[in-house]
């Protein structure tokens, strides 16, 4: 199993320090928290610099996540906003391409990807699928996968379960538009997370690891062993990324860099003992 560290798990520390620390802790890759560490307006020189740090650390960039900056409403029937969303996502794909990164995670809750009470759901789904298909075709030319994430009901009211995410990507119907799961969200939405992985794991491009309390694996009560077995059964080849930021509503990451290192270090030791 390949493990990646989401850069936001270390807060807003120096990015080179985060990359070097992730490699020293034994991670195979970093998953860049794009809106915080590498936004779409970043220059080619900045991207080249960060890619050099990653290469020097002996690891790779596995994915981009947290890609939206608050200006985009991905779920919209307004043609102007659809065009704006598609243009923005294509810029994210360009960042991924420049970072030699195979996957862009299409997550985000709140108003970015939620229905208002009076909206026509069928029309909204079709419009978002159209945007993702447009971007997916562009990403296909760049060799980039779009991974549509299932997110729990307390963060969005659309695509909460992995089954719903699978149905959506089937509507888009492109080989490089796949799904993304997160053990924190699985713990909330799925009756049996392991069985869900067995049923839909063939569609997964990536998996986020966070315990039941959204902290590092081993810090809560989630049954990682059963999910690890299910991943082996479906022959999952993607990265398992530690997305443990968003610990509480008032706190996005650990209080200190040293605390982050402790939890992320213990977490990967625990994960390797479970996942192999």
UniProtKB/TrEMBL annotation:
It comes from the Bacteria. InterPro entries: Sugar_Epim/Isomerase (IPR050417), Xyl_isomerase-like_sf (IPR036237), Xyl_isomerase-like_TIM-brl (IPR013022). The keyword Metal-binding does not apply. The keyword Isomerase applies. Keywords: Isomerase. Residues 20-248 form the Xylose isomerase-like TIM barrel domain. GO terms for molecular function: isomerase activity. PANTHER family: 3-DEHYDRO-D-GULOSIDE 4-EPIMERASE-RELATED, ISOMERASE. This is Xylose isomerase-like TIM barrel domain-containing protein.
């Amino acid at each position: 199993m390949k493990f990646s560290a989401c850069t936001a798990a270390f807060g807003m520390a120096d990015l080179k320090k985060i990359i070097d620390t992730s490699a020293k802790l034994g991670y195979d890759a970093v998953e860049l928290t794009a809106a915080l560490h590498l936004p779409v307006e970043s220059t080619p020189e900045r991207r080249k610099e960060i890619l050099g740090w990653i290469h020097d650390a002996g690891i790779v960039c596995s994915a981009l996540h947290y890609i939206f900056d608050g200006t985009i409403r991905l779920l919209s029937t307004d043609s102007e906003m659809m065009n704006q969303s598609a243009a923005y996502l294509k810029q994210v794909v360009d960042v991924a391409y420049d970072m030699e990164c195979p996957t862009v995670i299409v997550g985000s809750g709140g108003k970015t990807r939620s229905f208002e009470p009076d909206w026509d759901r069928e029309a909204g789904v079709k419009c978002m699928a159209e945007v993702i298909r447009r971007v997916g075709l562009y990403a296909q030319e760049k060799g980039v996968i779009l991974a549509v994430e299932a997110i729990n009901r307390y963060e969005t009211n659309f695509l909460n379960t992995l089954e719903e995410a699978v149905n959506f990507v089937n509507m888009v119907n492109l080989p490089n538009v796949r799904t993304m799961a997160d053990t924190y969200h699985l713990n909330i939405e799925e009756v049996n997370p392991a069985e869900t992985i067995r049923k839909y794991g063939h569609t997964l491009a990536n998996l986020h690891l966070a315990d039941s309390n959204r902290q590092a694996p081993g810090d809560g009560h989630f049954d990682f062993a059963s999910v690890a077995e299910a991943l082996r059964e479906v022959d999952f080849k993607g990265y398992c990324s530690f997305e443990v930021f968003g610990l509480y509503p008032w706190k996005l990451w650990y209080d200190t860099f040293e605390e982050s290192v402790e939890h992320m270090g213990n977490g990967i030791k625990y994960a390797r003992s479970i996942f192999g």
